[in-house]
Design brief:
The chain is α/β, with parallel strands linked by helices and 336 residues long. It has eight helices and 13 strands.
Amino acid sequence: MRRYGKHTDEDDIRTRPGRRNTRPRTNIRPKHEDAAEGLVLTVDRGRLKCLVGDRVVMAMKARELGRKAAVVGDRVALVGDLSGKKDTLARIVRIEERTSVLRRTADDDDPFERVVVANADQLAVVTALADPEPRPRLIDRCLVAAYDGGLEPLLVLTKSDLAPPEKLLELYGDLDIPYVVTSRAELDSGVAVARVREQLDGRITAFVGHSGVGKTTLVNALVPQERRRSTGHVNAVTGRGRHTTTSALALPLSGGDGWVIDTPGVRSFGLNHVDPSRVIHAFPDLEPGTEGCPRACSHDEPDCALDAWVAEGHADPARLYSLRRLLATRERTEGD
């Protein structure tokens, strides 16, 4: 065994390079200027099905994206094998800027928001008029999420053969929300499908609603070539439906220029992520009246300038009531 004295020749000593020095570090990342554009159709356990041109390509997220996740509706840039053949995999290297975002939290106390859909133009809130009974508070929460995320709302009322729609529509008349009323017989005949399609053509529409309201039945009628999943039934004891859709999926509208995004049924819609000050943007007739409001005004307090604005005749009092009802929805549970 060779021993070294106090004064050694450095050339005689073998040094082992440290692990941290074996690879040069750089912050420069490839720009992927030749990446192909794609649309995320669905996400399943880390694998993303994307539409690239006329091909469906399976892809995974590149490590360089870090914790940033792509969701259904995202426009992405892909590299790698884009043939769409079996057992091939591309990489998503960039997520383009989103024009709208539908988000929710598990409940109002949950600080972690989840992006459900990106880049949708419209949110179709599907609710049954009976079996199960309508839940206006859940509808209100969906409307707040739509206004906050930059989506235009659409009410789709199903099962009108079991109950009339007038009472529920009266609650939302002052919000000027477009609506479509359907029945089972009209769905079977295609009459209701045609009415709904008029609101969907040329747009990307996300469908949301709690289980058992007929959301997946409607999607199957709108996109018959891509039947979503079997439909469920309402539990006679609990009055709740069974989840038949387990993941969001974007589907091309049959015979038209538009997309339908079916989302899993929800039993709650948390709004912890919503800043109440953004909801006022959905009320352009009331927004000018907020200029005299105190800082950080909730628009539902004694010093709110909207009361005087409306009293002077600048806006309909019913509109102010509707705004405050939506803003207060975070203080109530969906079943109230």
